[in-house]
Write a structure and sequence with these properties.
The chain is mostly helical. Helix content is 66%, strand content 4%. The longest helix is centred in the N-terminal third of the chain and has 21 residues.
Length: 643
């Protein structure tokens, strides 16, 4: 046989051997026989030329000057190597049978496992394989691949590049993000937990470090979701909302208008998906921002876009179109409609006046007139707070953002108007005069008109303790936490005050609130300790190590509340069960806490604990007699047939 025929014969043997490598363990006779046969084929090739170098493209193999392509054998081998991040393989004369066994065994692992092991080159070094070398693909080439296997690879790489904080690899991902999105579907993102979680980690990293790229990638991902036509009207995608935390209402409005303007298939179903993507509390701001954008000449002069807007929001509103969009956009769409019947609604006169004021704010360029408009807006603001007019209150800040970008020379006047509004929010909050429905306005207070001592007097001397006041204090004065702790310590005897603060903190969802609760936990008294742990259950973030320390040392009541929190997450639940049910029990000294732990687990119905309970129920030691009985009882409860 000539060299070319020998190489073709080698490829056929390689395909067979890799098939066996994915099916059998390393010592299996079938696999070892296939490797021996492949070794003979390699020797036939490198007897003529001591080096065999194979280049790999996504669909073909290359040796010297020949392309091996357009045949299933070569395409399958090329795909096999490509998914494993291999760009080229070089085999040199002298390769031993044992080297081949180790190489083929490791390369037969799933692509994700190879990448977790550091990549093919790292595996070669670890296995001490010296006669085979590998040139690895860079991420950008791997990211351009298609197919189901790629989704598993992307799931791993998304987190890997963040862990390494490699600027080059992150750039490869962001540059190829559109390619990745084209391969994804809503089902992939909802059902592939690893892909969903790692996508969230990647986007969160971009949000914190490269916000412009985050906004670009997040918007592209939303477009992917909206383009899915294979979803039912009942499809829920709220679990994907985590990807888009950090996008502003203006970003959503830009995206929505762009989809309406450019996507022929955008319809009420698409809008239904959009309303699930954005947080429900943002839709008023999005609708307001969209209303301002619709007033632009580009929309007014585009008959097709006008028609699409009218169909979606005006002529044939569907169940997916929420009232907030209809109410916000109705007057605007009627105003630009050619032939739409304009309806005068007396109940909307006040809202139209609000809209006019905000439009004047955006358009006015004369300082004196802008100041006058600001004074009128302040009066309207006070009235809107009284009647809890959320639409106007949100719209004010949207209009201010638009104006600040448009008129930099008027920054001082705008800052003064905004400062007065924010001062009003803070003042009403401190007087407990801010309606709970308007708590979203607290996010606008970035700087206080008062000092930390003013807040401390309000809380501890005037005893004005409320979730909004604590939220503002902890947000605006994080450096004053020690002063806050000193005041708490002085009043450690005042159980009513402490319980009131704990009750408020559980409605202040922030990491700082968790730290304050941990500080309060150290106070004497079982009741306050129990209340603080219960409060932590209401926070989205908690201190895992702190709760595990309670599991180790706390009484049965504290352990119950800690376990209740930790059990919400699979990994924490597994670690907690291991800790509670594998306590050493020398001379039966820990039989009581073990029995208590079993009771807690049954009470919380943590069936994951079954394997531990089976072990305890079969323990022969005399010291485990009562524990064994308790475990058997627990298993009996879970094994009882349902009535």
């Amino acid at each position: 046989m000539g060299r070319e025929e020998n190489i073709e014969d080698f490829f056929q043997g390689l395909k067979v051997t890799f098939t066996y490598a994915t099916m059998y363990f390393k010592e299996h006779p079938v696999f070892l026989q296939a490797v021996e046969d492949l070794k003979k084929r390699i020797d036939s090739v490198i007897d003529v030329n001591p080096v065999l170098k194979i280049g790999i493209t996504p669909h073909a193999l290359l040796t010297e000057d020949k392309h091996w392509e357009k045949a299933r054998l070569y395409e399958e081998l090329a795909t096999f190597f490509h998914y494993r991040k291999i760009k080229a393989i070089t085999i040199t004369k002298g390769v031993a049978l044992d080297e081949l066994v180790r190489f083929l065994n490791k390369m037969g692992l799933p692509p994700k496992e190879i990448l977790k092991g550091g990549g093919p080159q790292a595996i070669l070094e670890d296995q001490r394989i010296f006669h085979i070398s590998i040139e690895e693909l860079d991420y950008s080439q791997l990211l351009k691949s298609a197919g189901e296997q790629c989704k598993d690879i992307w799931a791993y790489l998304l987190k890997s590049v963040v862990d390494k904080e490699s600027a080059e690899d992150i750039k490869a991902f962001t540059d190829n993000f559109e390619v990745i999105c084209k391969e994804l579907s809503i089902r992939d993102l909802r059902e592939n937990a690893e892909l969903r979680e790692n996508m969230a980690i990647f986007l969160a990293y971009l949000r914190d470090h490269q916000n412009d790229k985050f906004r670009k990638c997040a918007k592209r991902l939303i477009k992917t979701i909206l383009c899915n036509r294979d979803v039912s009207r009942e499809t829920s995608i709220e679990s994907l909302r985590i990807f888009f935390e950090g996008l502003a209402a203006d970003d959503f409005a830009d995206l929505l208008l762009a989809e309406i303007a450019t996507n022929e298939n955008f319809d009420s179903l698409s809008f239904g998906l959009f309303t699930q993507i954005a947080d429900k509390d943002m839709h008023r701001e999005i609708a307001t921002s969209l209303a301002y954008k619709i007033r632009g000449d580009a929309v007014k002069d585009n008959q097709r876009v006008r028609k699409k807007l009218e169909e979606l929001f005006f002529i044939s509103p569907s169940p997916f179109i929420s009232e907030v969009y209809q109410h916000t956009l109705l007057s605007v769409l009627q105003g630009i409609s050619q032939g739409g019947k304009i309806i005068f609604d007396p109940d909307r006169v006040l809202k139209n006046y609000h809209c006019i004021l905000l439009n004047l704010l955006i358009e006015e360029e004369r300082p004196e007139s802008l100041t006058l408009i600001g004074q009128n807006l302040l009066k309207v603001w006070e009235e809107a707070v009284q009647v809890k007019e959320q639409e106007f209150l949100n719209s004010f800040f949207v209009a201010m953002e638009i104006k600040k970008k448009k008129s930099l020379s008027l920054e001082d006047i705008l800052a003064k108007i905004e400062e007065q509004i924010i001062h009003d929010i803070e003042k009403r909050t401190l007087e407990n005069a801010m309606p709970s429905e308007l708590s979203f306005l607290l996010d606008r207070v970035k700087k206080s008109a008062f000092d930390n001592h003013f807040y401390l007097r309000k809380i501890f001397k005037e005893k004005k303790v409320s979730p909004p006041i604590l939220r503002l204090f902890l947000t605006l004065f994080p450096e004053s936490l020690k002063s806050f702790y000193r005041q708490l310590k002085r009043r450690s005897f005042n159980l009513r005050l402490l319980r009131n603060i704990v009750e408020c903190l559980k409605r202040v969802d922030s990491p700082v609130a968790c730290e304050v609760l941990k500080y309060l936990f150290a106070f004497p008294g079982k009741l306050i300790k129990l209340e603080t742990v219960k409060a932590m259950a209401y926070l989205s973030e908690y201190d895992r190590n702190f709760l595990f320390s309670i599991l180790k040392k706390g009484d049965v009541f504290l352990r119950r509340e800690s376990l209740r929190i930790l059990a919400k997450e699979k990994e924490n639940r597994a670690d907690a069960l291991r800790l509670l049910l594998t306590l050493s029990n020398p001379l039966g000294l820990r039989a009581k806490p073990l029995r208590e732990n079993i009771e807690l687990i049954v009470e919380l119905n943590l069936i994951d604990a079954k394997p531990y309970l089976v072990d305890l129920s079969q323990t022969k030691s005399f010291w485990y007699r009562s524990v064994r009985r308790k475990a058997q009882e627990a298993l009996g409860v879970w094994n009882e047939p349902e009535a």
